[in-house]
Automatic annotation (TrEMBL):
This is Probable sugar-binding periplasmic protein. It comes from the Bacteria. It is found in: Periplasm. It holds the Pfam family SBP_bac_1.
Amino acid sequence: MRKFILKTTTTLAAAAVSVSMAHAGDVEVLHWWTSGGEAAALNVLKQDLEGQGTGWNDMPVAGGGGESAMTVLRARVTSGNPPTAVQMLGFDILDWAKEDALADLNDVAVKEGWDDVIPEALQAFAKHDGQWVSAPVNVHSTNWVWANKAVLDANGIAVPANWEEFEAALETLAAAGVTPVAHGGQAWQDATVFDAVAMSAGGPEFYKAAFIDLDEEALGSDTMVESFRRMEVIRGHVDDNFSGRDWNLATAMVINGEAGFQMMGDWAKGEFLNAGKVPGEDFLCFRFPGTEDQVTFNADQFAMFDQGGKVSAEQAALATAILSPSFQSAFNVVKGSVPARTDVSDEAFDACGKQGMKDLAAAAASGNLYGSMAHGHAAPAAVKNAIYDVITAHFNGEYDAATAALELVDAVSIAK
Ligand code: BGC
């Protein structure tokens, strides 16, 4: 906690400096893209804008899921000094829109025809009362596994088709002295793994009932107990230093062969690419066993803070740049995500990106596309954070699986 406050204070001081240096014609962008792969993707956007004469004022706040970024944002808004544009996820966008804090992007959206090319699932979070309030950048999903191919080959492990095979693969790696699972013990990372584990243990109806409908019966069910039990299996296969580790350092363990697998959203692919690794040769990407037909998605969007009633020229330029088809391809190829538009060719994407695009379209068509609980697309922040707390306490041994399910019922009922 202390560390977090310190970090936030430093960031706020940095923010004050960056604001004083801002010029008219600049956009100040608050985001949490701080890893190597993320920075490479962000550069694509910066350069695009700078090429059009719009300057970039960077305001990074590390931490996947954006919890720390949202805390800094709240402080900036409270002090009457909101940033121009903010990376945001799902329900956070709707919460700010309800507070009337976001600029209306309708003129840009209508001019650029967003209604026709942005999928419904994203529009549900990008519009409030029928008005566009944010610009979708991409679609990520959380039910992926990343594996070191040489490590799997050396241990005779094929891509696991179900939970039992996955558990067997973890045991094989442990017996060979390789860390089976690269993981960072931070609440949002524990929850990211839980997205996939719960979807696999209970299927899409269970996932929806528990995390989207917040149904008490599902939250306290035997299936939830089984999901927690599987988390214990995973917890038993991480290394001793997992606590507090950043997600990209966990990815690095898979990249350098220290660990076999990481369960993480497809931003992890950005790290492999940034390290010069090739999918299918150096690393493998596959859906978490038992979730091959499902996609648990989160879409990064940029919401523009109202700077006095009208969208500024810079905000409009940023929104237009983000949704341009060429940017959607160039950015998402580097980021690991897939385009937020349905009309972008998959030609420039690698094998994992092509699969991501195919999976997304298939899941949307078959009713298998669900918002990620861990990344703010299933329930509002208060509920999400309550779920995080239980998952993390259980992961760190505070409760057994049965108690965790009971705690989840209570925590959600208090938060909602
Ligand atoms: C964001 C990704 C980001 C990841 C890790 C997620 O919440 O959607 O864009 O790469 O966090 O920072």
